[in-house]
């Protein structure tokens, strides 16, 4: 509970600070909570006989858009706080590889 | 051959018969419920100081992948039940325009 | 006007009649030709020392957008001419599977 | 060699070096040249009556995949050479905003 993930990551600089800044965590959490509420309403609609597939498609796309936005905010925070500081810290290669891998992930 | 789903949609009579076939609704609901659980675990992680942005990015991508799959199942069902029958029913233009609009939506 | 495109595809007789309607082929070809010209200008820029990565990224995204649009036009034509007529013709399953497979392809 | 785009970008450090490293430019150019050849073969196919829409869709997706890969290589190079060095150079905000803008572009 005492920051191992972060320290593992920041072992080179050893600063032990939280990785994702609190402000970004709050914004992303807010957006994901909204996406979750939206998912709930789709699940509710799917219980009804008269639900129309195209409406479900549209709702799913809307949630995907919300997740895309949450991912962008996360990425932007990561670039600012961790990637932009990599040369100063000396871990450019591992930071870039890790991020490229995460962006490709699906 | 008495396919209520189609008639429900196209009669626009509000008779309450299903449009999206029940089997597809169940499969999509199952996948969306899993995606929702996954979103919940990201929300939980975002409450912790030591959460790492790249892990959040990866988790969001995973949920997006799950939604993509749910969307594909919805689309496939729609193509089979409603689009493929459009010429026989006589509403090709409206069905195709509606679907293209939904697929472009973001 | 008398449905050759459909028969050409489904007869599998190799009679050489068009599958993709000529109008759609022309529109898609026009857009792909523009995309090709755009690719050419990126290739030209990449020969220069002073090319900036972010400009290359933006140009590549623009070409991807053009291809996305060409794909949408192709899909719309396919839905209208081949998928919407599948029930009347009796090959719903193969048409839907084929299309879903193509849409998933990457 | 005194091309404003680069210098404009690097005016803060004033080093005037080419922005996108030559190695990355060559790899990206190689991939884009292949994508262009692929586009050419689609254009050739689109001149023929018997071209099938689903094949065109698949080919377009393949070119999109090639462009996606070229974009990834460009991004990776940009992260390594320019973004990772931003804190050391003192232009984190402008670098991150510029990149987020380019990634959102469509």
List keywords for this structure.
homotetramer; 106 residues; mainly alpha; 5 helices; 75% helix
Write the layout of secondary structure elements.
The structure is a homotetramer of 106-residue chains.
Chain A: H1 4-10, H2 22-45, H3 53-83, H4 86-89, H5 92-104
Notes on the protein architecture:
- The structure is a homotetramer of 106-residue chains.
- Helices cover 75% and strands 0% of the residues of chain A.
- The first copy, chain A, contains 5 helices and no strands.
- Chain A has helices at 4-10, 22-45, 53-83, 86-89, 92-104.
- In chain A, helix 2 packs antiparallel against helix 3 (53-83).
- The longest helix of chain A has 31 residues, at 53-83.
- Residues 1-18 of chain A have low confidence and may be disordered.
- Chains in contact: A-B, A-D, B-C, C-D.
- Chains B and C meet through helix 3, helix 4 and helix 5 of B and helix 3, helix 4 and helix 5 of C.
